[in-house]
Amino acid sequence: MAQDTSHLLQDASKKTTQAVLEHSSKYHDAYTTIDKIMDSFWERVPYICIAIAVFILFWLLTKLFKLFLSKTLENRSYTRQNLVLVLNRVGTSAILFFGFLIGLVIAIPGFTPSQLMSALGIGSVAIGFAFKDIFQNLLSGLLILLSEPFRIGDDIVCNGLEGTVEDIQIRATFLRSYDGRRIVIPNATVYTSAITVNTAYQRRRCEFVVGIGYEDDVKKAKDIIRKILDENRNVLSQPAFSVNVTALADFSVNLTVRWWVDTTETTIAASASEIQEHVMVSFEEHGISIPYPVREVKVSNVTPELSLNKSSDA
């Protein structure tokens, strides 16, 4: 019995030892693989640091490029503001992309830019369909910046949206509305829509309509308005102002007043308000009325009871 027990114990110990060795060999392979990965990583750490340093160097080059561009073009009389934006954004993007490629070549062994280009070529069709709107807005943004239909700071109207241009980015154009809200319009919409640039020219025409009574002297009213326009320092002499009868309305003779102002000295709203106030005061002083709609109500003297009696007699 003692010998059988010892044999059983020996067999059990051998099996246990074999199982432990098998498991340890498996873990040993895993540990070996992890050690190899860590060794290769620590071997590439200096190259990754060099790649990061190279990318930072190219990022600093973009700052120098912007500074050089601003110093070179800021004093040129022919410089266009949007062209500077295009050169800034396209130039800095190209420099950063070139630095990124160099960093990948340094950090990843065996990597070449041709591999990236081939990968992009394989997925170009799928990317094109997925990012169609993004590419359309990007191309429209570049064309807007190059053609320069308006500049930053201009007041424009696009698709019924009106405001001051704050920024023209590659994807969208940013407006600040007159009530202090931000409006973001995709560049594709801006490029394909009709745009009104309110501040394209310094000289702008102002206009308003005023009505006088049929019993008033039209010539006298026109002379009063012409005198007001002639004495106002913000009204330009050229192009000449005008006061014309444009409508014989139901309650008034309508006079349309037009004049031109320099927007660097005053605004259209301020000039229109000033002229209309003077016209109202002068008309009151000279006895010229500004009529308003009058309704005439006729009341019949026949009472309902009397009309009912007449109908019953009939």
Report on this structure.
With about 325 residues, the chain is of the alpha+beta class. It has 3 domains: about 1-120; about 135-195, Roll (SH3 type barrels), CATH 2.30.30; about 205-285, Alpha-Beta Plaits. It is about 55% helix and about 15% strand. The strands form 2 sheets. It has a 5-stranded antiparallel β-sheet with strand order 4-3-2-1-5. Helix 1 (about 1-75) runs antiparallel to helix 2 (about 80-105) and helix 7 (about 220-230) crosses helix 8. The termini are far apart.
Based on CA atoms alone, the radius of gyration comes out at 41 Å
Number of strands: 8
N- to C-terminal distance: 145 Å
Mean pLDDT: 79
- Principal-axis shape: elongated
